[in-house]
Amino acid sequence: MHAYGVLEDIGLFDAGFFGYSPREAAEIDPQQRLLLECAVEALESAGVRADGSAHDIGVFAATGLSGYLLATHDGRAAADDNLSTLMGGDGHYAATRIAYKLGLTGPAMSVGSACSSSLLAIRTAAQAIAAGECDLALAGGMDIEFPQPISYLHQEGGIMARDGVCRPFDAAASGTVFGSGGGLVLLADAEVAEERGWPVRAVLMGSAVNNDGAEKASFTAPRSSRQADVIAQAMEVAEVDPARIGYVECHGTGTQLGDCSELSALMAAFGDAPLPRLGSAKANFGHLRVGAGVVGFIKACEVVARGVVPPLANLDQPMDALRAGDAPLPRTAGALDLPVHERFAGVNSFGFGGTNVAVVVRGHQDVRPVGVCPDGPHVLRVSAADPDSCLATAGTLAAVIRSGESPAVADIAHTLRQGRDDRAYRLATVGTSPGELAAGLEGVGEHTVEGWHKPGSETLLMMPGQGSDLLPTARALYGWETVFTSALDRLWTSARTIAPSLPDLSTALAPTAAYDAAADLALAHCLHTAVLLALTEQLTARGLRVDRLVGYSLGEYAAAAAADVISEEDALRLVLGRVGILRDAPAGAMIAVRLPSDAVAKLVPEDLATCAVTLGTGRSVMSLAAAALERVTSLLADAGVPHRVLEPALPYHSSLLAGAASAFAPIADAVPVRPGSARLVTTAAGRDSLGAGYWSAHLAGPPT
To answer: Is 55 noted as a catalytic residue in this protein?
Structure first.
C-alpha cells in the first residue's frame, strides 16, 4: 500500500548555525538535528533568550529507533570515528546535545516509553518545574524513519490500514498509517512566565502516568481499564470535573482494537458525563510513534487557545461504540463557545508496552493591563550566523512590517531585544515610523549599520568628561525617552537632597537657561554626572549589554556608579564634595595640543606646564597655572603647533591641585566601595581599584 506521512527535506540542516562542520552534521541522526532546530524555534517563539538567561532551562526529549545510524554506520571505521557516529545516532544524547549547543543549565534527559514518549517527556518536564529543578523546560520528541518508507505490505490482522488511510473512530477503520515527525514545546513556571511577560498558549493543569501491567492479551495490546485510570487521575490532579472537558485529543490510531479500547476508557473515566468532541492528529499526519504525543499536545493547546475544534479527518461513519448522548465526532470546525479560561482539553497517549499518559490543559486568560506603546524612535536588531541569513531575516521582517498586519513596532523592538539570542552577524536600524524601519531593514535606511561581532569581544562604555556638553542631549531626550526621563528625575531629586541650592530640573534644562560652567561648578558637574547615568540606563533599556565601563576625568564618577562600585547617591555626593574643594583651588587652565607627550615636554618647560592627559597618538592635554597661560600659548604658536584652550579654568590631573586633592581625600575615602569592581576600568595612574586615596590621586595625578 502506497501511503506514509513523509516529512520533507529531513536532510536539510543549518550546520554552521550550531557550530558543526558538514562532516560532524552528517554524523548526527536527522531526529536530533530537527530537535535542535525545534529547540531554537520554540525559544524564539516564546521570546526567551538562551544566552545569558537568569533561569535554568531543562530539556526532556525522546527519539525513535535510529535507522539513520543503522544505514550509515561503518563498522570498519576507527574507534574515534565510531564514537562520534554512535553518539550522533544514539537518542540518549538528544537532550544533552540541545543543552550543550544552546547553553541550557537545567536537567537534560532522554525519555522513552515507545509511542507515549513525547507526552511523557512533557509530563516529566512539568514535574521538574514543579519540583524547582528548573524554571523552564523544552519537552517533546521526534521520530524519523530512515529511509522514510513510501509504501507497506498490508496483512490481515495487522495494525496497518488496508486502504492506506488512517480513520480514527470510524466504523470502516482498518488500521493505522505511519509517518515521520514530532516537535518540542516550551514549558515555564506560571509565576515566572507572568513576571517576564512571555506569551502563554495554554496552562498544563494536571497529568498522570501508569502502566498496563501483565493482565492483558499481549505485550503490545492495550488495557482499557488502566487507560481509564490514567485519564481519571489526570482530571483529578487538574481538579477538573469531566463535564467541563470540552475536547479530547485522543491516541486514536485508527485500529479497531485500539480505538474501541480508548473509547471504553474514556466512557469509564467520564462516568455519567457525556464524552466531549474527540480528535486525533494521526488522521492528518499518520502515527508518528515517539513524536505523536507532543503533536497531540500542541493541537490541544491550540484548541483551547483559539476556541476552535478542528474536524476529524477521514471520518465517514462513527464507530458503534459511541453512546447516543456523547458529543458527535466533529465533521467540520466548531467553536468551544466558552471564555478562554474555561476551555479545558484532555490529551491521551498510549505506548506499546503499556505506558499510558494523560494530560489536561486549560486556556490562558491574559489579565495583564495593556501598556501604552512608547513613541519612536525604535531600534530594531536582527542577527544571524552569517550575512545572508541576517539580511534574509531582516527582509522577511520588513515585509511583515509593511503588510500592515504586524504587531506594534515597539513590541517588535522589545522582542528582538529581550527574546532573541545574539548571533555572529548583526544588523540594527533606527526609525520612528513602520515605513522608515522597514526601509532600514531592507538596507536603504538612513540610520542602519551591520557587521560581524567578534566572538569573545567586550562592549566598553566610555563616559566623557566635562569638556563634552551634554545639555543638548539631555534637553532632547528628557520628556521623550521614558527611561531617561524617569532616571534623570530620580537622580536630580537625589542631587537636590544633597545640595538643596541646586535649581529644579526644569530650570536647569530650560532652553533659555545659560550658566557659566566655570563659575557654577556644582550645577555643571552634578548635571553632567546625572545625565551620564540616565543615558546609561536608557542605553541598557535599548538593549546595550555593557561589559566594562571607563570614564574620562569627571566622567569616571558616573562610570563607577554605573559599574555598581559606588552608589548613584555617593557618585553625586563625591562630585558635589569635589566642587566644594575646587572653589578654593588655584586658578589654572588646560590646553589640548597636537603633540605627543614627549614632544610637549621638550617644547614647554616643566615649570610652565605638565602633560596631564594623553588622548592618543599625537594628541595631549597640558595643565598649567593661570599665570603661565599666555607664555605657553605663545610657545605653541611660535612652534606652529595646533592647540586649543579648553573650558575648565582649573589645572585638572596635575600637581597644581595637590592641595585640593589632600583636602578631598577624607571626603572621598568615606564613601563605601562595593566589592566586584571588575567592570570598572580605573584611570588613576598606579591604581587598579577604588581604595583609599583613589579619588584624590585621580584629581591631582595623571590618568593612565
So the answer is: no
- Catalytic residue flag (residue 251): yes
**pLDDT confidence of residue 76:** 63
List beta partners, residue 209. Answer: 357
Coil, strand or helix at 106? coil
102 pLDDT band, cuts 50/70/90, is very high
Contact (CB, 8 A) for 169 and 315: yes
Q: How far is CA 624 from CA 291, 621, 635, in A?
A: 77, 10, 13
CA–CA dist 144, 62 (Å, integer): 12
Q: For residue 378, what are the contacts with CB-CB under 8 A and spacing of at least 6?
A: 409, 410, 412, 413, 430, 431, 432, 437
Instruction: Determine contact, residues 340/365, Cβ cutoff 8 Å.
Output: yes
Q: Is the peptide bond before 318 cis (omega within 30 degrees of 0)?
A: no
The residues with which 549 forms a beta bridge, in sequence order, are 461, 680
Identified catalytic residue from 55, 287, 378, 653 = 287
C-alpha triplet 564, 459, 680: angle, nearest 5°: 30
* Marked catalytic residue, from 38, 115, 526, 611: 115
State in Å, rounded, how far the first CA of the chain is from the last one: 80
Confidence of residue 704 (pLDDT cuts 50, 70, 90): low
Q: What is the mean pLDDT of the chain?
A: 91
- β-strand 344-350 against 245-249: which pairing, if any? parallel
- Region 540-561: mean pLDDT is 90
Query: How far apart are the C-alpha atoms of 536 and 290, rounded to whole Å?
Result: 50
Domains and CATH numbers, the chain: 15-363 (3.40.47.10), 378-454 (3.30.70.3290), 462-585+650-700 (3.40.366.10)
> Could you give phi then psi for residue 181, rounded to 5 degrees?
160, -170
pLDDT of residue 700: 86
Question: Any catalytic annotation for residue 134?
Answer: no
Tell me the H-state helices in 481-520. Answer: 482-498, 505-509
Number of H helices, E strands in the chain: 24, 21
3-state secondary structure of 588: strand
- Grid cell, residue 636, equals 605653541
State yes or no: pLDDT of 79 exceeds 60: no
Residue 569: C-alpha distances to residues 496, 507, 526, 566, 671 (Å): 11, 21, 11, 8, 10
What is residue 75's predicted lDDT score, i.e. its pLDDT?
Answer: 66
Residue 319 CB coordination number (10 Å)? 17
Q: What is the pLDDT of residues 595-637, one digit of tens each?
A: 888 888 889 888 888 877 777 778 888 899 999 999 999 999 9
- Residue for cell digits 606646564? 609
* Cell numbers describing residue 344: 479545558
User: Which position among 38, 166, 251, 698 bears the catalytic label?
Assistant: 251
Place of cell 566594562: 548
